[in-house]
Amino acid sequence: MAALEGKVALVTGAGRGLGRACARIFAREGARVVVVDLRPEGGEETVQLIKDAGGEAIAVGADVSQPAQVEAMVRAAVETYGGLDCAINNAVYFYGRHPLADIPDEDWNRALAVNYTGVFLCMKHEIRAMLERGGGAIVNVGSGNEHSSKPGLSWYLSAKQAIYGLTKVAALDYGGQGIRVNAIGPGSMWTPALRQTAEQNPHHVEQLEALTPLRRLAEPEEVAEAAIWLCTDKASYVLGHTLVADGGAVLG
Length: 252
Ligand SMILES: NC(=O)c1ccc[n+]([C@@H]2O[C@H](COP(=O)([O-])OP(=O)(O)OC[C@H]3O[C@@H](n4cnc5c(N)ncnc54)[C@H](O)[C@@H]3O)[C@@H](O)[C@H]2O)c1
Hints:
By secondary structure, the chain is an alpha/beta fold. The protein has one domain (8-251): NAD(P)-binding Rossmann-like Domain (Rossmann fold, 3-Layer(aba) Sandwich), CATH 3.40.50.720. The protein is 48% helix and 15% strand. It has helices at residues 17-28, 40-52, 67-81, 105-133, 154-174, 192-200, 202-210, 220-231; strands at 8-12, 32-37, 56-61, 86-89, 136-141, 179-186, 242-245. Strands 3-2-1-4-5-6-7 form a seven-stranded parallel beta sheet, sandwiched between helices. The radius of gyration is 17 Å and the shape is globular. It binds nicotinamide-adenine-dinucleotide.
């Protein structure tokens, strides 16, 4: 039997990249999938891919920084499929590299609203639905390990590292009620954003590969497999953990 047969799973930012890979693997493992994205066309494409492979999914348009939209996205899971068992909070707003003092307040606020507060809002409503169900599993998507630093990414890495703290405290708060909260720390992946960068600056990819002991970047599916594993019963005793899937970059 598939690992998540009969379960209901939700993925944010599932219109492309890592989120799409997670949604497709959830479906492959037997879950019915709620595909959430700010861009409805990306979400619809992911749903079509899942249906073409014989799976079940719906697309929900939502901005994870907006409390009412997050509440509605979880309600869609409950109303369509009867509840929620698994969630991957993956959506990201990416704004480029800027030294800290050059970041306009409104850009900082938008980045934190999506990349940090968005994870809080998603967890809040997902946990409420999972408590109704008697348990569940949540995976929050960070970046690298808890000590990663790269120039110009203060707005990004501060949110990503805060997510690891949020994950651990939520794990403590809800582990006793059957909800396992964990995080995944991806390394560089061949997602659409990176393919774009690679076209403009192939040297950037060579640098990333040189910093990765496996000497290559990840396909999103390689990181998604690790995230989905955290949602299955095979990870039943894993709680508050950050699983770093970065080809060993953390070691270098
Ligand atoms: N790509 C990498 O190399 C890399 C490395 C480390 C960590 N990550 C993390 O992995 C995750 C996925 O990255 P990716 O490269 O696949 O991203 P991506 O940009 O390819 O996809 C992100 C998706 O999120 C959606 N989105 C953006 N803002 C949203 C919002 N407010 N509400 C709902 N959806 C929204 C976008 O429409 C898009 O479909 C992110 O959390 C990212 O920080 C990526």
